Amino acid sequence: MKIAILGGDGFCGWPACLYLSDRGHDVTIIDNLSRRAIDKELGAESLTLIASIAERLDAWYEVTGKTIGFRNIDVAQDYDALLDFLRAEAPDAVVHFAEQRAAPYSMKNSRTKRYTVDNNINATHNLLAAIVESGLDIHVVHLGTMGVYGYGTAGMKIPEGYLDVMVHTDDHGNIEQSILYPSNPGSVYHMTKVLDQHLFAYYAKNDELRVTDLHQGIIWGTWTEQTARDERLINRFDYDGDYGTVLNRFLIQAGIGYPLTVHGTGGQTRAFIHIRDMVRCIELALENPPARGERVKIINQMTETHRVRDLAELVAQISGATVAYVPNPRKESAENELFVSNDTFLSLGLKPTTLAEGLLHEVEEVAQRYADRVDRDKIPAQSLWTKNQRAGVPELS
Ligand code: USQ
């Protein structure tokens, strides 16, 4: 399959590119390298030393003899370049990762809020409009988020995108309808993925675009079989207060003897998926597109749910780390249950990597290996959801 990967230099995009190339697909990365620019802006580098995009692609060719193309295009800003690319290359599918993906970064200030909305919504809409203008039949696979649903429970498992409801009509009749599951985003970033959903629904209806929207949980783990083949292929690993996600942060905190930063009571339950399962899910989604004229195919891309404090206790048990309960910088429920349906990927053959089997390995592999690159000042979460809060800076033991 000929596949263009928007955002192919990022944390999910890069391992997905290597995996799909390894599986024999013809892959081109489209990326404006914005994530590397945000590293500089925040003064927070990836824990792993990532090679330049040119070095990455040369290394992949050296190691496998396979070529991955690269175009530096800002898809949110340069519509014409995107359209020209689609017309010239006519990919079978576009995987769309080209969005600012950190909730804390999106909540820092009005500039980062506006950047997140402008970048994410324009990127998605430019892609959809360009596909229509190109006249090509291109399957869009988009990386969405579990966070579009919020993290509550309505006495049922969160379904895969749609909720069947019965509407009581004015003339005392009943009409059955299938609607998008009510959204309840918890950050400006998550809200952009809610807005994306509506853009997809509209273009699937009006232009019969084929769209798959993957509602992904929190990634944990850092490496895939492909990124481990050469030091220059290594994936990025974010541990800072803005981009680091919870379990990966706990792993590196454990590795350097920093108290694990549990926000609030740690009663937040979230959905998780290992990075190696993520790349497989992208492939499964590409292999199973919706038909033209069908509604957007929404798949929940997660394998387990866990409570934050349970994760902290588990990591502490394995590593001997201490746990620090810090004031929660976010506005979110202190405690929640979360039950999620993930039948589609399981029925398509996904074999989940479980936390129980993979966690110890990750701690040893990454956290201890790169511990000396950690800047401890970058660990506390400083981005506040409401500005009268105080950031949670744990006491060091
Ligand atoms: N948390 C802590 N301590 C920390 C960091 C986070 O207790 O040091 C808590 C947060 O308060 C939150 C939970 O852990 O309750 C998850 O935070 P996170 O930073 O791991 O994840 P989140 O902000 O939700 O965003 C991440 C990705 C995003 C993706 C989302 C999937 O950055 O791109 O969409 O996970 S989901 O959470 O399922 O919506």
UniProtKB/TrEMBL annotation:
Residues 3-291 form the NAD-dependent epimerase/dehydratase domain. Pfam families: Epimerase. InterPro entries: Epimerase_deHydtase, NAD(P)-bd_dom_sf. PANTHER family: DTDP-D-GLUCOSE 4,6-DEHYDRATASE-RELATED. Belongs to the NAD(P)-dependent epimerase/dehydratase family. This is NAD-dependent epimerase/dehydratase family protein.
